[in-house]
Every structure is written in C-alpha cells, then in structure tokens.
Amino acid sequence: MTQIHIEVDGTPVRGVAGQSIAALLLATGRTSWRRTRTGRPRGVFCGIGTCFDCVVTVNGLRDVRACRRRAADGDRVELQEDDRA
C-alpha cells in the first residue's frame, strides 16, 4: 500500500492511495465535517455521491463530495460551513 499525505484544516493526515476523502476522514475518527446553516453536523450519508451531505473544500474548490473524490498526495482539505453564499 502506498501512503499519501494530505492536510485537513491545516493538520497533516496520512492515508492510503485510492482512499476517498470521506474514507480517509472516517479512518481518522471524524464522523462529520460540515455543518448546516442551523448548525447540524453532516458527514457521509449515502456514500455514493447522491446526497451532498459530505461536501468539503479541496485545494480551494468548494462543494467537493468527499465520498466521490479520491484523496491525492498533497491535497488541502477544508471543512465547510454552510453559512457562506
């Protein structure tokens, strides 16, 4: 297995090549990484890219579905808040 290194909100995180960002976050113990406008936590719900509950910002691009995007070595992932327009 090939290890990869990404950054999640400025914190270095290790993963395995081929893991989705959602799988990598779950492996580090995170069960949610987004909050709705009302403050409700969200993470993986459907796991197949249909529901958009797991969106994160990756390398500056908002609304990336973490369950569909494979983590790449050097990715910068930021957790999202839905209070932005």
Shape: globular
Fraction in helix = under 10%
Over the alpha carbons, how many angstroms does the gyration radius reach? 12 Å
By secondary-structure content and strand pairing, the structural class works out as: mainly beta
Mean pLDDT: 91
SSE sequence, one letter per element: EEHEEEEEE
* Content of β-strand: 35-45%
**Spatial order of the strands forming the largest sheet:** 2-1-7-5-6
Straight-line N-to-C gap: 40 Å
The major sheet is characterized as: 5 strands, mixed
Number of helices: 1
Low-confidence residue ranges: none
Strands, total number: 8
InterPro entries: 2Fe-2S-bd_N (IPR042204), 2Fe-2S_ferredoxin-like_sf (IPR036010)
Protein name: 2Fe-2S iron-sulfur cluster-binding protein
Pfam families: Fer2_4
Organism: Saccharothrix lopnurensis
Commentary on this structure:
This protein has one helix spanning 21-27, and strands at residues 3-8, 11-16, 34-35, 41-42, 55-58, 61-65, 76-78, 80-81. Helices cover 8% and strands 35% of the residues. The longest helix is centred in the first third of the chain and has 7 residues, at 21-27. With 85 residues, the protein is mainly beta. The chain has 1 helix and 8 strands; from the N terminus they run E-E-H-E-E-E-E-E-E.
Short overview:
The chain is mainly beta.
Topology readout:
Elements lengths: L2 E6 L2 E6 L4 H7 L6 E2 L5 E2 L12 E4 L2 E5 L10 E3 L1 E2 L4
Parallel strand pairs: 1-7, 3-8
Antiparallel strand pairs: 1-2, 3-4, 5-6, 5-7
Structural descriptors:
3-stranded mixed β-sheet; 5-stranded mixed β-sheet; 85 residues; mainly beta; 1 helix; 35% strand
